[in-house]
Specification:
binds adenosine-5'-diphosphate, single chain, 48% helix, transmembrane, alpha+beta, phosphoprotein phosphatase activity
Length: 256
């Protein structure tokens, strides 16, 4: 609690009057802590690939100077690290732009049917590479929401990409979009992968939260994807529902 004291004008009979203000600043403190944790995490995530780049540059200047085979291999690793840094910077910029827009409601009418079809077309090469079959079940009639087209693409891309990457071993990813009489417009993506332990599910949309850090790194994750998804959905007054069962797979549903 922050306390401030203000002496009021005028005294009577030698009595001074004060105004005492007690302000509950726990929420401000919590936000401050979250911000500094975020900066620390972001710096750490950027420092790791930077340290690796520095290490490889030094090796190439020294021990590997005259070994073309090693140099070739190291250059490949260095490119991966540079790409990782640029994915991180892109995601950090996305988050910061979304924070600026948080209070502005999106105003465009967007038909989700062709939009999701387009997202799945663009992810077909990734699904192919991972040996995953993408099955689509989209409504026949247009399903429109008030939204921001680019942000919605980002949401669906993230969720379908995650299902392909983390549910790869299940071989099949099912994407559906329908109008539910009770719940309204629902998008869902379902994989038959290893599933997510229940204790992790409520924390998935936290920034930099990963169920398995090494798994996420090897699958080119930044740990920011679902945080971005949550921000965008909040702005669209939509909800993300996660159902997952160990050994059976996961389903991510967006309810507009
Ligand atoms: P990342 O960039 O690491 O993929 P996300 O924020 O998109 O970050 O996801 C957070 C974590 O949630 C991932 O690191 C992964 O551990 C887990 N996850 C997301 N989607 C799935 C899924 N379909 N199946 C299993 N785990 C998942």
């Amino acid at each position: 609690v922050q306390v401030s004291r203000l002496q009021l004008e005028g005294q009577s009979g030698g009595t001074a009057y004060y105004l005492l203000v007690f302000r509950d600043i726990s929420e401000l403190r919590r936000l401050d802590r979250m911000r500094s944790d975020f900066v620390a995490n972001a710096s750490h995530e950027l420092r790791t690939p930077l340290a690796s780049l520095r290490g490889f540059i030094e090796t190439m200047q020294g021990p590997a100077r005259d070994d073309p085979k090693s140099r070739e291999r190291f250059l490949g690793i260095m490119l991966d690290q540079a790409n990782r840094m640029s994915r991180l910077v892109d995601d950090l910029l996305s988050l910061s732009r979304l924070e600026l827009k948080a209070h502005m409601a999106p105003s465009e009418m967007v038909d989700l049917v062709p939009l999701i079809g387009h997202v799945c077309d663009s992810l077909a090469p990734l699904a192919d590479d991972l040996d995953v079959e993408l099955r689509l079940d989209l409504a026949d009639a247009p399903l429109r929401v008030l939204g921001d087209r680019d942000e919605l693409v980002q949401v669906f891309e993230n969720l379908v990409e995650n299902a392909c990457k983390y549910g790869q071993e299940g071989k099949i990813v099912e994407v559906s979009l329908r109008h539910d009489p009770v719940h309204g417009i629902e998008f869902s993506v379902k994989d038959k992968g290893p599933g997510i332990p229940a204790e992790h599910v409520p924390r998935l949309t936290e920034r930099f939260y990963r169920v398995n850090v090494e798994d996420s790194r090897s699958k080119k994750g930044t740990g920011l994807g679902l945080a971005i998804v949550k921000h965008i959905l909040t702005r669209h007054r939509a909800r993300l529902i996660v159902r997952s069962e160990i050994g059976k797979g996961s389903e991510f549903t967006v309810r507009f």
